[in-house]
Write a structure and sequence with these properties.
The chain has about 325 residues and is mainly α. It folds into two domains: about 110 residues, no CATH class; about 210 residues, no CATH class. The protein has 17 helices and no strands. Helix 3 runs parallel beside helix 5, helix 9 packs antiparallel against helix 10 and helix 11 packs parallel to helix 14. The protein is elongated and about 70 Å long.
């Protein structure tokens, strides 16, 4: 209801914004009512997206709320995604030019707990994102706690993969390729959870790897190519293995649920177990990661067939990883 009251007030063309901010807005900063601010900010952010270039008043009120010293930090955390989605929207870009909003973005990113990335994709911004990703995933690797990468969900897939590529170049200089590759695979896997269109890992395997990473390895100095190919193979292998284990976990859960629905007739236990194993094997063979691995093998062989050795080197390196070879038998025969 509070959000509706603000929307009605802003719909009135004669509304004095300064009076609104110093009056009704201030009223909701009182301890008894500040819990309403979450609904107000979310409601105004959603309406600003609908208003587009006419959202100037909404932006000023949101800015007044979230930058006020009396605004609880929990409001920033809960409303952070709505605010960042609005600020990054093309539809409100004209309105944003008239309303300074850098302080709002900085405060929201601070509440989320991540350094604010640059708005304009560039080599330096991708390097910054890459550094942040590696720091987060090094911590994840040590603590086994999933990384907090909420801020990266607002970047398009290409930018995310450019950051992964920058991180890969850093990993190639590491003395422990296996550890740093695992950390980067964690980053790629968790970044994929923030990208649904297109799915990030298939996009990485089928598009970004053959058109960006493999050519960059070919252009590198001969002394650097082996390390780059090795870390790329490890990154791809760990990413596909992590995806496969996640997919298998879902299959296993469904298997347990399905088992509980069957009759516990002892005379059919052996037959049921055999049939269940066959179904499990078929389901595992059709996992998206298994199909991706087969497609990857074909791409690498095609790349090698045109006289580019990187494809064959990565293919050979992947087959040398026992877990990869056993979980993706189609990779060798593709």
């Amino acid at each position: 209801m509070a959000a509706s009251l603000f929307s009605e007030a802003l719909a009135n063309k004669n509304t004095d914004v300064h009076a609104l901010i110093s009056g009704p807005v201030a009223y909701f900063f009182e301890p008894l009512f500040n819990w309403c601010l979450v609904g107000i900010v979310r409601g105004l952010a959603d309406e600003a997206l609908r208003k587009g270039h006419r959202a100037g008043l909404h932006l000023r009120v949101i800015q007044a709320i979230v930058t006020d010293a009396s605004c609880p930090q929990v409001v920033w955390r809960i409303c952070g995604r709505s605010i960042l989605r609005m600020l990054d929207s093309k539809s409100v870009r004209v309105a944003l030019e008239l309303v300074p909003h850098d302080d709002v973005k900085a405060m929201v990113y601070g509440a989320i707990g991540i350094t604010e990335p640059s708005e304009t994709p560039s080599t330096s911004s991708n390097s910054g994102m890459a550094s942040t990703l590696l720091q987060l995933c090094a911590k994840t690797y040590a603590t086994r706690v999933p990384p907090s990468i909420a801020a990266f969900q607002f970047y398009p897939p290409q930018n995310k993969l450019e950051a992964v590529h920058s991180a890969l170049l850093s990993c190639a200089k590491s003395s422990d390729l296996a550890r740093t590759s695992r950390q980067l695979a964690i980053a790629l896997f968790w970044l994929a959870q923030t990208s649904r269109s297109p799915p990030l890992i298939p996009y990485f395997i089928n598009s970004y790897l053959p058109t960006n990473i493999l050519p960059s390895i070919e252009r590198a100095l001969p002394t650097e190519q082996t390390n780059l190919a090795n870390v790329t193979a490890l990154l791809v292998g760990y990413t596909l293995l992590t995806s496969f284990r996640s997919e298998r976990a879902v299959i296993d859960v469904k298997r347990v649920e399905g088992r509980s629905s069957f009759s516990m007739d002892v005379s059919h236990d052996d037959e049921h177990e055999r049939r269940e194993r066959e179904l499990l094997k078929e389901a595992a063979a059709s996992c998206p990661s298994v199909l991706l691995a087969t497609q990857l093998a074909k791409r690498l062989k095609t790349y090698a067939a045109v006289g580019k050795p990187t494809g064959a080197l990565i293919h050979k390196r992947l087959l040398a990883v026992p877990q990869f070879a056993s979980n993706f038998p189609g990779f060798a025969s593709a």
